[in-house]
Write a structure and sequence with these properties.
The protein is α/β, with parallel strands linked by helices. It is built from nine helices and 18 strands. The strands form three sheets. It has an eight-stranded parallel barrel with strand order 2-3-4-5-6-7-8-9. Strands 10-13-16-15-14-17 form a six-stranded antiparallel barrel.
Length: 343
């Protein structure tokens, strides 16, 4: 009785293959919850895609992918001295991201494979242009595998990438590659031309979740209860204002459903907006991500740990126990009970 992800495998894999074929070297990113599909499964798919390098988010994620993927592993979180749980710093499969000159200095002579992350307008991690020369000065006895650029999703990232690589020491030509995120095929190609260096695209969302129509999130209907007017229900013992139906569906906080904290309507302005809509939201009901009978269903109360209570007006035909309803999820925050590849 689960929250399920159905993957139309033929269609999904066709998208994966065509994405890889249409771009310069793709470095699939497998991190966090594996974009809803799981890190290990994605590592297996990356093996089938025949890519050279896989990117993981953290050192802690490495053990999940090492069996399923035999190539190089780029760690996106920057290396820091004493990085707990890290493999040997000179593990020949691991490429470390170095984001501070002092970390480059700490790795001098270690035999580590590294990329130097350049600070972009995202301002997450990275070495400012002015200190790149200093970092380059510490690369004796390490294998320098390129520059890394983490570009924003908004703004002209194309232009930013070009501006940054032109400002790199030796215009980037000291490196064997530029590892970029969030560039399209044309952007990557022109970056490769500017730097006369291969570009490797670190891609997660556009690859794994790029064809949403191949992915169907479904919630089992666990129970259906008739409610008379005035009857109470739920942890919060709200009362039904009309005769209606209470639907219990799979999918709760443990699955990442309802992180929007439904009735905790944040600001006063949001509450006023809800009131002015005169809708159920003002009484504590908020739209749920579940679709029942072609319509977005209301939460009867905030999601429980593994299921949610939905309120159906009598105008909606309730589904039967054991049926499934569609649920709109954010894949990067959803933990499915079951993932089924078909086709
Ligand atoms: C997570 C991450 C990516 C992948 O991001 P998507 O938006 O999922 O493609 C790429 N580069 C870096 C540095 C990341 O941390």
């Amino acid at each position: 009785m689960p929250l399920s992800l159905r993957v139309d495998a033929l269609r999904w894999r066709e998208h994966l293959r065509s994405y890889v074929a249409a771009h310069p070297e793709v470095v699939p990113v497998v991190k966090g919850n594996g974009y809803g599909l799981g890190r290990r499964r994605l590592a297996q798919e990356a093996t089938a895609l025949d890519v050279r390098t896989l990117a993981v988010g953290t050192y802690e994620e490495i053990p999940d992918v090492t069996d399923a993927f035999a190539g190089d592993l780029l760690v996106l979180t920057p290396w820091r001295p004493g990085a707990g749980g890290a493999p040997a710093v000179d593990d020949p499969r691991v490429i470390h991201t170095v984001s501070r000159p002092e970390d480059a200095r700490a790795l001098t002579g270690s035999g580590a494979r590294i990329v130097l992350e350049v600070l972009t307008s995202v301002r997450r991690h990275g070495i400012t242009l002015g200190r790149l020369g200093e970092a380059l000065g510490h690369l004796d006895g390490v294998s320098f595998e390129g520059w890394a650029l983490h570009l924003p999703l908004a703004g002209d990232r194309q232009q930013e990438a070009q501006r940054l690589v032109r400002a790199l020491p030796d215009a980037g030509r000291t490196a064997t590659a530029v590892w970029a995120s969030h560039l399209d095929a044309a952007g990557a190609t022109s970056l490769a031309e500017t730097t006369a260096t291969p570009v490797r695209l670190r891609v997660g969302t556009a690859l794994w979740l790029g064809d949403r129509a191949a992915l169907h999130a479904k919630a089992s209907v666990l129970d259906v209860h008739r409610l008379r007017r005035g009857e109470s229900y739920g942890y919060r013992q709200r009362r039904s204002r009309t005769a209606s139906t209470l639907l219990v569906v799979a999918g709760g906080t443990a699955h990442g459903v309802g992180l929007e904290a439904p009735s905790a309507a944040g600001t006063a302005r949001q509450r006023v907006l809800a009131l002015s809509r005169g809708g159920l939201a003002a009484t504590g009901r908020t739209p749920s991500p579940f679709t029942v009978g072609g319509r977005r269903a209301w939460f009867a109360e905030p999601p429980h740990m593994q299921c949610s209570l939905l309120w159906l007006p009598d105008s909606v035909e309730p589904p039967a126990v054991g049926n499934e309803v569609d649920v709109e999820v954010r894949f990067t925050t959803t933990l499915f009970d079951r993932i089924e590849l078909t086709g």
